[in-house]
Amino acid sequence: MEKQVLRFKVNGDEYEVFIHPKTLLAEVIRDHLGLTGTKRGCETVSCGACTVNVNGKSVKSCSVLAIQCEGMEVTTVEGLEKNGKLSPIQRSFLDHGSYQCGFCTPGMLMSATAFISEAKNPTKEQVKESIEGNICRCTGYNSIVRAIEAVTQGKYKEE
Amino acid sequence: MINDFHYLKPASLKDALAMYAEHDDCKVICGGQSLLIVMRQGMVAPEFLLDIKHVKELSYIKYDDKDGLRIGATTTHREIEKSDIIAKKYPVLVAMEEKLASIQTRNWGTIGGNLAHADPAGDPGPVLIALKAEIKFGSSSGEKTVPLDEFFVDYFETKMEHGDLVLEVHVPAPEAKFGCAYQKFNLLDSDMGIVAAAASVALNADGTCKEARIVLGNAGPIPLRVTKAEDLLKGKKLDDKIFAEAGGIASDEAQPVADIHASEEHRRHVLGVLTKRMLKKAFEQAQKA
Amino acid sequence: MSHAKYSVINTHVHNIDGVAKVTGRATYTFDVNLPGMLHGKILRSPHPHAKILSIDTTRALELPGVKIVVTGKDTLGIKQGIWRRYEELCDEQVLPLEKVRYIGEPVAAVAAITEEIAEAALDLIDVEYEVLPAVYEPLEAIKKEAPTIHEGVERNVNVTRHIEWGDVDEAFEEADYIREDWFKCSGQAHMCMETRAAVSSFTPEGKLTCWASTQSAYYTQGLLAGVLGLREGDVRVLAPYVGGGFGGKFELDAAMFCSAVMSMKLFKPVKVVFSREEDFIASKRRTPMFYYVRTGIKKDGTFCARESRMFSNGGAYTGMGATALYLSGFFHSFPYKWRGYRYDGYRVYTNTLPSTSMRGFGAPQAMFCSEQQIDWICADLGLDPFEVRRKNGHTEGYEVPGQAFIASCGLEQCINEIEKWVKSKGKLPANRGIGISSCGFMSGGIFNWFDSPYSFSSAVVTINVDGTVELHVGCQDIGQGSNTTMAIIAAETLGVKVEDIRVHSGDTAHCPADLGAWGSRQTLMAGNAVKMACEDAKKQLLEFAYAEMGINIVYDLDIKDRWVHIVARPERGLKYEELVKKALRAKDGQRIMGRGYYTPHRKGMISPAYSYMMQAVDAEVDPETGKIKIHEVMTAHDCGQPINQLGLIGQLEGAASMALGYAYLEDMPMEDGKLMNPNLVDYKVIKAPEMPEAGIIEIDTYEPEGPYGAKEAGEGLTNPTAAALGNAIYHAMGIQMKELPITPERVLKALREKKEQEAQKK
After folding, report:
1. Ordered strands of the C177-185 beta sheet
2. How far is the C-alpha of C527 from the C-alpha of C458, rounded, in Å?
3. Could you identify which of A90, B25, C366, C590 might form a hypothetical disulfide with B47, taking C-beta atoms 3.0 to 4.6 angstroms apart as the criterion?
4. CATH of the domain at A121
5. Residues of chain A found within 8 Å of residue C23, distances taken between Cβ atoms
């Protein structure tokens, strides 16, 4: 079965990779591009640790064929900071202690980033729903919800 | 592990239908949110995979006061969830989508893919049937439209034959004095329902029941219309007593399968409760409409 | 002593690993990638009990890309376990030679150039089994006719434990009322976000490096050395960031073992990562327990006697189960004074997934039984559940006879605060109730079952010329924030800022030995070691300051906020950085180094100190479907002096989420020894929309044994929740839930039975 060329942008950089069409987006990101910030925690599209943004929308990269992202823009956790300046949601996570072991954190940040870009004055329930697809075993979620709320309430600006 | 396959990327719907007809051992992928799971488990291993994700002609939401709602098959769940016109005219569809899996799945998965997968525990099926939706599907040989409740045939099996693609879902224009409600029973709100019930009620001018639809989710091989209970309600004055009776019928007619999450008895019991509650909710909506 | 104002302790300090974790820079064993690294996969037994007759690896070896296949025959066949002091409890060959004892047990391992090839090779390994009769429940396995799981172990009774004090029978005589109940507590999966993972690299000099997702690099080092026939010093274990542990990751697991065995044969790095399914079926779980509880109490609410018997489902091997057996029985008496107490625990082997330690270590199960029964007794006798707990609760200075001395105890204040909170809620709507549960938990165990000759915790602190500090500790950060807690203690003790401290942990080559992250020990034990090391370093520094400043001998010097000053005259002093520069010059350019260590001595049978708490759960039941909604959780908590403020809140909320899961969502149903839900679709973990607000009321106490008065926080907090939820449902619906998890179906069944009973009475 032939490999195919995939041309897409990841964190603002153009990439060209040569892959079997069955390769998952998560595999391209981690194994081909070496961006190991994105994690994997299950085989059933359940845990959300692999969440990245594709054209600004959150997706579980373990459940997307990389080849379908031809010409698209992917953002991973590594792409949230700009020249060493952390994004508002990252700073909010630090202030609120919204992580413990940190394994779910990249996925959480990507779900949060997509949500923040779309939501206007969300309720607490909507914030909770925004991370419904991300499992965290350590924090009990509330500190993550507080961090996202703080950003949607305008308490953190882009630096 | 996902098997190796030849990847086919059609540029248009016409191309897609032609390619599909040309290859026998071929599966269609769009969002892949259901397909990739079964492929990874080795349950499905096609030689060809036809990717229609980029077939723009099938991605649309159109509404017309007379014709109703038409949703193209490759429209994502999230697009339906966020549609202003659907929120206004068919709020039950938005409510259903909001609890369908997670945002990530809804961003990539499509309504056409969901219906083609034909999981009796799927959320859209029962709700769309309660809304009296029909589904259009077709191949390079032509198109067909059937009422959605006739589309599902068995577990993970539809009326479609090889070469057929889901093309569009059509929901008729909202009637006056009509209400529709859906609820699934699960431990976590966005999980697939252990069981689920959708109910719609249309009222006569005098407030009696003109027509009711009761559709159960995960209560058999396909979304189950409880026509016996629907017939009970027709023409009658609706109250809690008759809703409970309808619930009892739904409970009896259902064919739920037990698993580790719940016994058969518990499923039947909850189906009865959900039916009763959704009928009441639909009725209250219809009264206000 | 009240919570003093500290510069760093209990202030809002960012977790020091935060930037690494929020930017994707944090590397876990899961991410480790080495040149020439091979991928390993494990073949697992499909049978719950079978003799291994033969294993033919020929076909697998012929698959292109496969480099090696190993079985038990390729190992030293050593039976290992963490209970090194008790050989009979070292009962597990990770790759067994003779027989398999549970579905999912490893039988062979493959290393290949890709994961996919390794996976395909598994199907080509031909194992011939002779299936043996199997037994799955402890009460069945203990019968005479049950199949023997471990040769020489009669009735499959793996371990027994007996705890007793006072004259129990006499104490029962004194009781006006006696109640007895049976309970069934389920297992639970740790379900760490990072599954078990290890990368082993063995080099021609005969040295092994193992990256492992572990709670104790030191244990992993010792256990690996033991089974591989290497010197401990020739094994280096690196725990990079660890994606959760919760009690499941300090034993020797198949990822560590198989990757090491294969690497030793190939002299190439080998990586083994469990799939989520493997993690469910083959990493040891929380111990399922059958509890019989008999309690005698006076009319006025004074506790007289308790007698309990517990049968635990040990599964196929001992794991940490023997400790869980004891601790469950010990904490089952907590937090009350009993005139007579007797506990008999029986851990029984079965052909199921072995059970081991999991956050709470047997106490959540014990409290589910004890705290519910106490509420039922109160209802039977018309007593107030708060008053009864207050009346019998532990107090400072109490000695649990022969077991423990309680040096600090804020239980009464906890009870008072929760009583206030519950009363403030007023009358609740129908089908809704608030349930309470109190408990106490250990701050690290005094057990040395690993027979470590090293101090339980050690620390080395080194001050650089610019005043920055290297802190080397053996304690392991698995997400609970111990790196940050140690940095806070170090910064406070030395008088500097957290950002001046660099914490080194998780590397046996560079860090002193520490027993690791279990039993809620690190804040107290490693914290004490760090405090001692920093006091040592500070003393050396201040020696120069005394000389430098030439002050009156009656004055004391201290360092705070990088300012070395006279305590009585804080405006007089010099900058810390200046002092350090001078001190190094005076020491021939040698950096200031301090050493510290801690091992509990003469601290009873269990632990040097105990945390206390009372928790309330506000829950609602749908009487028609049985579905449970948790509205709110509130905990009054005594952990002595809180050290890591953000960490503490995180531990409370995290513990509540895990404990709630145990109470009503998570289950591990098995059929003929097969786990029926080894995936995250069917194993239900709480998610954000279901997680309620979980507030905390901190109670002010001071623990003399703890660093700055600190005790544990985070494990004890998993103890009360299942009981509190059970009590909430009892008060809401009048039903007694004796089985975990509390499912909608069980609720409806109990409601139906209650209705039938009431109908019969009429």
Report:
1. C157-165, C340-349, C303-315, C289-297, C177-185
2. 9
3. B25
4. 1.10.150.120
5. 37, 77-78, 80-81, 86, 90
* Residues A66, A111 within the same domain: no
Alpha helices in B146-196 (DSSP H): 148-151
State the angle between helix axes of C527-549 and C576-586 in degrees (0 to 180), rounded to the nearest 10: 80
Q: Is residue A68 situated within a structural domain? A: yes
8 A C-beta contact, residue C469 and residue C490 = yes
Last residue of a domain, one of A51, A79, A107: A79
Q: What is the DSSP letter of C662?
A: I
CATH for the stretch B178-288? 3.30.390.50
Measure the CA–CA gap between B168 and B62, rounded to whole angstroms. Answer: 11
Q: How far apart are CA C629 and CA C627, in angstroms?
A: 7
Q: Which domain covers residue A60, as residue numbers?
A: 4-79
pLDDT band of residue C4 (cuts 50, 70, 90) is low
pTM to 2 decimal places: 0.97
CATH, range B6-51:
3.30.43.10
Instruction: Report the gap between the CA of A130 and the closest CA in chain B (Å).
Output: 7
Beta-strand ranges (E) seen in C443-539 are: 457-463, 469-473, 501-504
Sign of CA dihedral C143, C307, C375, C613: negative
| pLDDT at B56 > cutoff 80 | yes
Chain B residues close to A130, C-beta within 8 Å: 103
Q: In this complex, is the C-beta atom of C480 within 8 Å of any C-beta atom belonging to chain A?
A: yes
Residue with structure tokens 């070496």?
A34
Backbone angles phi, psi at C377, to 5 degrees: -65, -45
pLDDT digits (tens, 9 = 90+) for A55-88: 999 999 999 999 999 999 999 999 999 999 999 9
Those residues whose C-beta lies under 8 Å from the C-beta of residue B91, and which sit 6 or more positions away, are none
DSSP string, C118-138: HHHHHTT-EEEEEE-----SH
Q: Tens of pLDDT along A11-45? A: 999 999 999 999 999 999 999 999 999 999 999 99
Q: How far apart are CA C6 and CA C3, in angstroms?
A: 9
Cα distance between the two ends of chain B: 51
pLDDT tens digit sequence for C671-701? 999 999 999 999 999 999 999 999 999 999 9
**Cβ distance of A1 and B101 shorter than 8 Å:** no
Q: Are C712 and C525 in contact (CB under 8 A)?
A: no
Residue type, C194: E
pLDDT in tens, B87-127: 999 999 999 999 999 999 999 999 999 999 999 999 999 99
Residue ranges and CATH numbers for the domains of chain C are 18-25+456-598 (3.30.365.10), 32-132+193-244+249-282 (3.90.1170.50), 285-446+604-761 (3.30.365.10)
Contacts of B190 in chain A (CB under 8 A): 132-133
Predicted confidence (pLDDT) at residue C2 exceeds the cutoff of 70: no
Task: Indicate the number of domains in chain A.
Answer: 2
Alpha-helical (H) ranges within C305-410 are: 321-331, 363-381, 385-392
* Helices A88-96, A105-118: crossing angle, 10 deg rounding: 130
Are A92 and A140 in a shared domain?
A: yes
CA atoms within 13 A on the CB side of C291: 34
Provide DSSP, A42-89: -SSS-S-TTEEEETTEEEEGGGSBGGGGTT-EEE-GGGS-BTTBPPHH
Distance, in angstroms, between B133 CA and closest chain A CA?
A: 28
Interface of A with C in 44-103 (CB under 8 A): 44, 46-47, 49, 76-78, 80-81, 86, 90, 93-97, 99-103
Q: How confident is the model at residue C1 (pLDDT cuts 50, 70, 90)?
A: very low
